[in-house]
Structure formats: structure tokens, C-alpha cells
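Researcher: Structure prediction, please.
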Amino acid sequence: MADCKSAELKKRAIIKVTGPDSKDFLTGLLTNDIDGTTLPETGSGPHTVVPSCFAGLLTPQGKILFDFIVAKSDDGYFIDVDAASAEDLVKRLTFYKLRADVEISLLGAPHRLYAIWGGSDVQVSSGICFADPRLPELGWRCVIENENSISATCEPLEEMDFHTHRIKLGIPEGGKDYAFGDTFPHEACYDQINGVDFKKGCFVGQEVVSRMQHRGTARKRIISVSAEEELPAQGFEITANGKPIGTLGSSSGSDGIALIRLDRAARALENEQQIMTGGITLSLKVPTWADYLIE
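Model: Predicted structure follows.
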């Protein structure tokens, strides 16, 4: 039996930022320390793993425009981002470029992005690998040019299999579990999944994020949901006693992720009201990595 699992992430894209000013350029824009590194604590990973961080680019009002993983490359940085957002992110970064000595490019073939998770004997013969810094159980990402670089001990799976794994862990992704342009980092749990560095200094939207951290004003949070039947597509309203309390995000079978108003969910549970979406009764559970409660 294969030890680890791997899947090509065809719906992700890789942007490369290079040049003498690349570090300072990204540091001044993003929510996190781009030279930070979070390595999985279980199992052994690829032989060469470069520093990585999870980060976002915000509006000046502090709402998330893009989310991605940043990893150190040999001459700059890789940005692992949703493919549907990649061209817009290139345009946004170019807008902020001004006089910075950086080059911003969207990589295509032969570069391919893989997720590798599970097991204890992960080997990659060529390419650049980096930890998925949101949670150790998510494993690694590898930018490679030859799929045979990945050890035969890894069972080849489909991209949706990785998302099933992510959904069961309750890890959100922008555009699937929360809306870009309408969600604050705390609502998307950046403070819980290593997405923001509150000590790094200024970044776009930093004042709003710092204020929410200081005041503890996040009323919406990511919650794992489950049902006794297959869940509907993302975007369905979640209600309690007919009143909205949140929105369903991505799902796999009977498991899903939702963005929920914690206070409304708490009242519904206290009053033993049915929580539903698309005519299906839901159970709510705070992800194991989170330190907040439904209250």
C-alpha cells in the first residue's frame, strides 16, 4: 500500500516574483512574514523544503482580495494561488510595483504544482517543495517539471481528493469558503491558521486587522459542518428557525465548511433549533485547530 498521497493541483497557479527588491516589495503588501517557515510536525517530508508562509493581500479597508502560499525560490519567491485569481493578482501586484526593482510573471508549462500529504516516506527527486503552512496535516506543495519526480510510494489521486482532506480538517480557502472582497482575515481564521503576523509592521489593511485582533470583534468564523446526506453546492444559506446564520462553503459528500455568525449559532443550539441548508439538517463543530467557541 502506498504510504503518502499526491495530487496535481490543476486549479492552482504559480506566480514568480524576482528581483533585488522582491522581499521588501512583498513584505510591505502581505499579511504575513514571507520568510517565515512552518514545517509539518508529523512524518518526514521531501529532502529539500524551502521556507513558506500563508498570506493574503487585502483592500485598504482590511478585506481579503487574494489568499495564497508564498515560498522561497532560488532567485525570489513563488506564489501558489487559485488559478482563477492568478491574472488579477499579477495585475494587482504590478499596480503596487511603482519603482520597485521586481519582475512578476505567471508561470506555465512545464511547471506543475502538486500537493503531497500523509505517510512518512515522501521523496521528491527534483523541484522545489514547501510546507503547507496552514496546518501540518496538509503536508507539502511541490513545484516540479516532471511528475515522475514524486516517489512511487505516494498514491496518485485527484485534486478533489486533496480538497476532501482539506474539508475534513476544516481549513478554508477563499472563493470557496468565503467571498473575496467581503471577508476580514479574522473571519477567515487567518489568526488561527498562520495567515497574519501581528508584529511584522505595516501592510495593506493592517490597521483594521490589528484593531480586530485587539478588540476581539470577529463575530463570523469558519465552522465544520456535517449532515446525514450529501450536502448541496457552496453558497447555500444556512438558517436556524428560518433565520440566516451563515453560508455554506465547499463540501465533500456529507462534510463541509461554513462561515457562521457564532452568536446566532449559539442561540440556535441553546434553543435546540434545527440548523439547516437546502432542506438538510446540519451539525456544527469547531475545527480542532481553532481556539474559539460557538458562543
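Model: Residues 219-285 form a domain with the Elongation Factor Tu (Ef-tu); domain 3 fold (CATH 2.40.30.110).
Researcher: Thanks, that helps.
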